[in-house]
Amino acid sequence: SGGKIIDSARVVNNRFTFKAIKHEPTFAHLVTKSGRPLTHMFVEKATLKISGDANLSEVVVSGTPANDALMAMMKQSSDLLISYNEARAKMDEEVNK
């Protein structure tokens, strides 16, 4: 929060480890070295799977209940926004209300 870096890691052979992990899940933003955002996630003491295409910022974090729920919520939110924008472009008043 507030742009504070809580940890960083170098990717080697498609693996990396965070060293500053707290015991409870900590909400964080996964970004590239240049600061380009990739996704939100919960950093916690667990083995997480991070997959997707960083070039397209289509990155998914899984492996814990908190991250699985967060990814599902983000997908649902994205789908709703797409539906809303499509309806708005068509001037669909029922959906815009």
Proportion of residues in extended strands: 15-25%
What kind of sheet is the major sheet? 2 strands, antiparallel
Mean pLDDT score: 84
The strands making up the biggest β-sheet line up spatially as 1-2
**Helix fraction bin:** 25-40%
**Broad structural category:** alpha+beta
Order of helices and strands: EEEEHH
The shape is elongated
DSSP helix count?
2
Q: How many β-strands, per DSSP? A: 4
Characteristic key phrases:
single chain; 97 residues; alpha+beta; two-stranded antiparallel sheet; 24% strand; elongated
Gist of the model:
With about 100 residues, this protein is α+β, with helices and mostly antiparallel strands.
Could you describe the 3D structure shown?
This protein is α+β, with helices and mostly antiparallel strands and 97 residues long. The chain is 30% helix and 24% strand. The protein contains 2 helices and 4 strands; from the N terminus they run ββββαα. The chain has helices spanning 65-89, 93-96, and strands at 26-31, 37-43, 49-53, 58-62. It has a two-stranded antiparallel sheet. A hairpin with a 5-residue loop joins strand 1 (26-31) and strand 2 (37-43). It is elongated and about 50 Å long. The N and C termini lie far apart (33 Å).
Write the layout of secondary structure elements.
Layout: E1 26-31, E2 37-43, E3 49-53, E4 58-62, H1 65-89, H2 93-96
Antiparallel strand pairs: 1-2, 3-4
